Amino acid sequence: MVNYAIIGCGHIAKKHASAISNSANSKLVAVCDTVPERMEYYKEEYNVDTYTDYDKLLLDKNVDVINICTPSGLHASLAVKAANAKKHIVVEKPIALTLEDSKQIIDVCKENNVKLAVVHPNRFRPVMIEMKKILKDNLLGKISHANATVRWNRNQEYYDQAAWRGTKEFDGGVLMNQAIHNLDLLLWFMGDVDELFSMEATRLRNIESEDVSTGVIRFKSGALGIVEAATTIYPKNLEESISIFGEKGTVIIGGSNALYFKHIDIESLSEEAIKNIKETIEVDPFGKPGHQWIIEDMTLAITEDRDPIVSGEDGHRALELVNGFYKSAEKNTPLRF
Predict the structure, then answer these.
(1) Which of 20, 223, 265, 278 is deepest in the core (most CB within 10 A)?
(2) Phi, psi at residue 28, to the nearest 5°?
(3) What pLDDT band is residue 63 in, cutting at 50, 70 and 90?
(4) Of the CATH numbers 3.50.50.60, 3.90.1150.10, 3.40.50.740, 3.40.50.720, which one belongs to the domain with range 2-122+290-308?
């Protein structure tokens, strides 16, 4: 049995608690928050120990893994403390807000021989697993370009829920907070980036960070990419999509949350085969929750002494792309990686 503890009992913590309770050989044994009232649900639902002092939680020898569910700007300091206490770490996206902090987390985990997993759960959606298989089998041939689009609504009320939302110190904007999942998927599908250029703006929301961003990418393969991300869409989430265009096929994943194949046309697949792929996804588009995949994999990574599937390095690459867009937009110039 691998025992987990959660630090930060906000909205996302409930997904972690549920994932832990539904994962084999995994148990939630403690939670920590500076506001005692936030822990009452977990105490009643899961019969866990509660801590308002993080340092005391780290002294709990019954805890094997710390799940970091706090505002993003706190990830680095909490992760470093956890690693130095010899605790394995599951950290919500983004791994950190700066590349220096991200590298520090990765290095201290290696120094203390503890596992580090970053929560990029969209990789485990059935449609994404199928897309990865299509690319692995080279069914699209040479890729010309790919698009990643996030056209969502996060109104002012969303940002006003907490003082840290939309700040550069603790949260970031649409790229860091929402579209980082799509950037992670682009890297997973398309490989490393060679060059990019980005423009961003804060158009409609009263926040410090960007609420709309556009960018272009040249991947090391030579393929191009286009990224569009916004939380300004009226009146609700409109679209989340990833499209990949190749010499032998076109695949578009779409819907309001990128759960379905909107279009598949592949030279080597019959109409019947394509129909079966699309219908299989539509029967259960969510599949096993992504957070549960992350927890189950962490438990196995510990027992099998291997790296988690979504590693600290994966989280660092996604952060590097976000920060690359920010740097390009700030300097109004292309950026070479």
Answers:
(1) 20
(2) -85, 120
(3) very high
(4) 3.40.50.720
Give the residue-averaged pLDDT of 319-336: 98
Strand 249-254 vs strand 260-266: parallel, antiparallel, or unpaired? antiparallel
Q: Enumerate the domain spans of the chain.
A: 2-122+290-308, 123-287+320-336
Q: What are phi and psi of 45, to 5 degrees?
A: -80, -35
pTM value surpassing 0.90: yes
Compute the distance between CA of residue 253 and CA of residue 274 in angstroms, rounded to an integer.
Answer: 14
Using CA atoms, how far apart are residues 210 and 10, in angstroms rounded to an integer? 23
Burial class (CB in 10 A: 0-12, 13-18, 19+), 30: buried
Question: What tokens appear for 227 in the block?
Answer: 């990224």
d(C-alpha 81, C-alpha 209), whole Å: 28
Give the pLDDT confidence of 184-224 residue by residue, as tens digits.
999 999 999 999 999 999 999 999 999 999 999 999 999 99
Question: What does each C-alpha distance from 308 to 263, 287, 304 come to in angstroms?
Answer: 32, 20, 10
Euclidean distance between CA atoms 69 and 15, whole angstroms: 10
Q: What is the DSSP string of 191-223?
A: --EEEEEEEEE--SS-SSS-SEEEEEEEETTS-
Per-residue exposure over 98-134, b if at least 16 CB sit within 10 Å of its own CB, e if not: eeebbbbbbebbeeeebbbbbbbbbbbbbbbebbeeb
- CA nearest neighbour of 182 among 146, 158, 207: 146
The Cα 298–Cα 311 span in angstroms is: 10
